[in-house]
Amino acid sequence: MALGINIRPAIPGDEIALSVVGSATFLESYSETIPGPALIAHCRDQHAPEIYKAYITSNDPKSGCWLAESTATKAPIGYAVTSSVEAPTEGQPTDIE
Fold first, then answer.
1. pLDDT value at position 14?
2. Where are the domains of the chain?
3. What is the mean pLDDT of each run of 10 residues along the chain (97 residues)?
4. Superfamily of the domain at 5-82
5. How far apart are the first and last CA of the chain?
6. Longest dimension (CA), the chain
7. Amino acid 10: pLDDT
8. 17 to each of 2, 9, 27, how far by Cα in Å?
9. How many Cα atoms within 13 Å fall on the side-chain side of residue 77?
10. Lower CB density within 10 Å: C or N end of the chain?
11. CA-to-CA distance for 91 and 20, rounded, in angstroms?
12. What is the spatial distance between Cα 48 and Cα 35, in angstroms, rounded to a whole number?
């Protein structure tokens, strides 16, 4: 069976799915290079549902969230977030990250 993927804009109520996928992605990407306690703290603080809810409900036109789901099961399998450039990153006023 081929894996089907649906990517859609995140809506209020998706913040928990985004938190889980964001944390899982971060853990998979950085578990070899960031010490355990710091890794856990980052996931707790930067991938909390409230963080994603703020992106979803933001009035900032540079802010957005998308959720990738399996078409067969509706399980969250990926995500994307855009926002205004935040310190310590330097950028131009029109940049997004």
1. 98
2. 5-82
3. 86 97 95 95 96 94 94 95 79 79
4. Gcn5-related N-acetyltransferase (GNAT) (3.40.630.30)
5. 35
6. 46
7. 97
8. 23, 13, 15
9. 13
10. N
11. 29
12. 19
Q: Rg of the chain over CA atoms, in angstroms? A: 15
Tell me the C-alpha distance between 38 and 25, whole Å.
15
Helices (H) and strands (E) in the chain, counts: 3, 3
Residue pointed to by tokens 């979803």: 56
Structure tokens at 14: 């998706």
Q: Is the dihedral of CA 51, 56, 61, 62 positive or negative?
A: positive
Q: Which amino acid is at 23?
A: S
DSSP states of 10-25 as a string?
--TT-HHHHHHHHHHH
- Alpha-helical runs (H) found in the chain: 15-30, 36-46, 49-57
